[in-house]
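Field: sequence (string)
Field: structure_tokens (string)

Example rows 1 and 2, in order.
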Amino acid sequence: MRVLVQRVKEASIAIANQMVASIGPGMLLLVGFTQGDDLEKVRYMAQKIAKLRVFSDSLGKMNLNLSSVNGELLVVSQFTLYANLEDGNRPSFTQALAPELARPLYDAFNQRLEVEIGQRVKTGVFGENMAVSLINDGPVTIWLER
């Protein structure tokens, strides 16, 4: 399981020029799954992200988590996090989990995040072609893998 975490001032998702989700300050998560991923990894990653201290305290030090700053969360499924470019120039996605197996993990991840942060998680639409917009704050971008 791979998650690219971006601290954002705002982020949104549109499909066919129609806004489907947006947040103010918080985190945008791009999430991908691979063989061997399971509910235990989902639980671990949700807990890790909920506790991740990437927001600045009064001294300007990254010391606060999402709940401490009343931040929002926007989660996007992104199988391309498992792109492989070892051979040639066209990415291979064979390491990405098949959609019918990834979707239940994606749904479970979002549900677990809601439990961990105590608020609704906004999401994209699994499997859709989405336009993701964001204003990265910092920039702060962190790669998590389990």
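Row 2 begins here:
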Amino acid sequence: MREKSNTCCFTGHRDISGVTYAELANRMEPAVQRLIGEGYRYFVCGGAIGFDTFAAILIHSLKMRGEDVHLVLMLPCRDQAAKWSAYDRAVYAQILQKADEVVYIGEKYTPGCMQMRNRAMVDAASACICYLTQMRGGTWQTVNYAGAQGLSVINVASD
């Protein structure tokens, strides 16, 4: 059963072009494996383009390799991908199908729904893996909130 003590959330920038997928996997997988070793089983992603998508794919990949992990998508609204490219919507649809649990914070996009989603992810977790390279914006705010709430924060952009 998903509890705060066995749940990790992910937060990161949409633009992760500063790192290759191989480099990011080499940074993220050891962090995730360490948390699995500590009893974490639920991994919450926000479903956005960029880091969120990569994190969701990584968790699903680990599950397919036999790890006892669960992918939880905590989404700001049902129409999050409405303005995305056809390719990004197709990837998003695949991730939705592979998720073990999908939580919608709201039905429609509203101002502030992304921040509400970010806080809900942090509030559901006791650890946070992030990709933070800019000290501004939603990822920075989410990481600050996670730290203020006492979560263990691992920044795979610098770790």
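free_text_note (row 2): The first strand starts at residue 7 and ends at 12.
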